Amino acid sequence: MTRYPDIATWLLLLALAPIRGLCLVALSHGWQPYEHLPEDEQLVLQRPPSDSSAATRPSAPYALPFPSRPGSRPSGFIALGDSYSAGIGTGLVNGTEDDCRRGANAYPVLVQRDLNRSRDGGDDPTFQFLSCTGSTVGDMLAGAEHSQIDGFNTTSTADFALLSIGGNDLGFFDIMNSCIFRFYSFYSGTCETALCHADEQMASSDFENRLRLAIMEILDRVRWEKRPWFTITVTGYARFFNADTDECDDYSFGMWWRGPKLERKLRQRMNDMVVDVNNKIRHSVDVINAAFAEPRVLFVDYDDAFEGHRFCEPGVVEPDYARNETWFFLVGGLDNNPSAEKPVLGAQYALLPPESPLIDPENCLEPAQTSGDWGELALCMMAMAAERDPMLRKADGRVVAENSMCGVLATWQ
Ligand SMILES: *[C@@H]1O[C@H](CO)[C@@H](O)[C@H](O)[C@H]1NC(C)=O
Ligand SMILES: *[C@@H]1O[C@H](CO)[C@@H](O)[C@H](O)[C@H]1NC(C)=O
Ligand SMILES: *[C@@H]1O[C@H](CO)[C@@H](O)[C@H](O)[C@H]1NC(C)=O
Ligand SMILES: *[C@@H]1O[C@H](CO)[C@@H](O)[C@H](O)[C@H]1NC(C)=O
C-alpha cells in the first residue's frame, strides 16, 4: 500500500515522546542507574576519580549502566516492541517515517547516542531497531508474519534488549477511541465495553503467559546461556492523565461535536488501567527472574517521571496541541522533537489526496486493522463516520458536508 509520509506527522494518537530529560532510572538492587544526559555531556558511568589530573573519562572497569559483560562496554543492543519504544511522534527520520513509525528521538535511539558518545574509541555499538507501532505480543512472537523475534540478527552482537509491549493486547486503541476521541462517532462502541474488555484480558492468565513467552523467546534466541550478561529491560506505560484537576471535567478530546468530557472518573479509570498493566508486566518479570540464578529482566516503571507531563495538567486547556510539556502525542499535534529547527506542524499542512486509500471509507478498514497503526485506524474511522453521516459536526461545530472529507482532515485542528 502506498504510504503518505505527511499524515504520519499528525494523525497519530497518544504515542509517547519520552524525551527531553526523561531519565530511565533503574534502581532495582544490584543494577546501576542509567541516565540519559544532554548532548554536550559525556555519559558518565562512574564518578570520575577525584584526582583532577586523571582523565575525565571514567576508566575501566566501568560501573556499567546495564548489567553487562564484566569489564567491557555493551557492544550492541536491540529494541523490540510497540510504539512506546518505536518512539512515534519524536521527530521524523530523514524527513519521513517508515511503516513502523520509528521516531528520531525514540528512547532506544537516545540510548544508542549515549553509548556512541561514551564508547572510548572502540567500535560503535550495533543497534537493531525492530520496534513497530501497533505491535502486539502475538505480532512479536516467533512464527508471526512480521515477527520481531525472528527478525533480529543473532550474528550481530547484542548485549541487551529494550522492550515495550502489552498495551495493544489490551485494546489501548479501542479504549482511546471509544472513551476519548470517538473517531467513528456513534459507531465507536461504548467506553465501558472497551474498558471491560481490557479488564477481562488482564484478569485472565493469558496476558501474562504471552508476555513471559515473548521475553523467553528473546532470551532463547540470543542463547542466553552463552551470553550470561545479556539482559532485557522492559518498560511499562505512563498514566495518561492528571486525574485531580477540576477544569478538565469540561474539556473533550472528541473528534466530533459534543464529544465525551474528560471527567475525573474517566481519567481515573484509564489511569488505573495503566497501573494495572504495569503491575502485570512487573509480575511477569518477577516470575521470569525467579527462575534464573541472576535476574535477566529489568522492569522500568517510569510513570513518576511523567508527573506534570500528562494530559489535563493544571491550567492547561485541552486539547492543547502546542504544549510541548505534554509527553504524549496528541491527534493533530506537533512532533515533540527538541532538535528540530522548528516544530513539525501537523494537520494544517498535511494534505491527503482525495484518492488516498487511507480515507477510502469503503475499503480502508481492513488494511488499517491489519497494520494495527492507530493513526491509520483513526483516519479511516473518521472517513467512515463522515460518509455514514454527512451532517456530522466536527468538534468545533462545523458540519462535515461543508467541505470534502479531504478538506476536513486537512484542517483538522
Ligand atoms: C538518511 O538519509 C541519508 C542520506 O540519504 C542516508 O545515508 C541514511 O542512511 C538515512 N538514514 C536513515 C536512518 O534512513
Ligand atoms: C552511532 O554511531 C553510528 C556509527 O558511527 C551512526 O551510524 C549512528 O547514527 C550513531 N547513532 C546515534 C544515535 O548517534
Ligand atoms: C547479521 O550481522 C552480521 C554481523 O554484524 C552481518 O555480517 C550480517 O550481514 C547480518 N545479516 C543480515 C541478514 O543482516
Ligand atoms: C516549548 O514551548 C514553549 C512555549 O510555547 C516554547 O517557548 C519553547 O521554545 C518550546 N520548546 C521546544 C523545545 O520546542
UniProtKB/TrEMBL annotation:
This is SGNH hydrolase-type esterase domain-containing protein. The keyword Signal applies. PANTHER family: LIPASE 2 (PTHR37981), SGNH HYDROLASE-TYPE ESTERASE DOMAIN-CONTAINING PROTEIN (PTHR37981:SF1). It comes from the Eukaryota. Residues 1-21 form the signal peptide. InterPro entries: SEST-like, SGNH_hydro, SGNH_hydro_sf. One of its GO terms (biological process) is lipid metabolic process. Residues 45-69 are annotated as: Disordered. Residues 79-288 form the SGNH hydrolase-type esterase domain. One of its GO terms (molecular function) is hydrolase activity, acting on ester bonds.
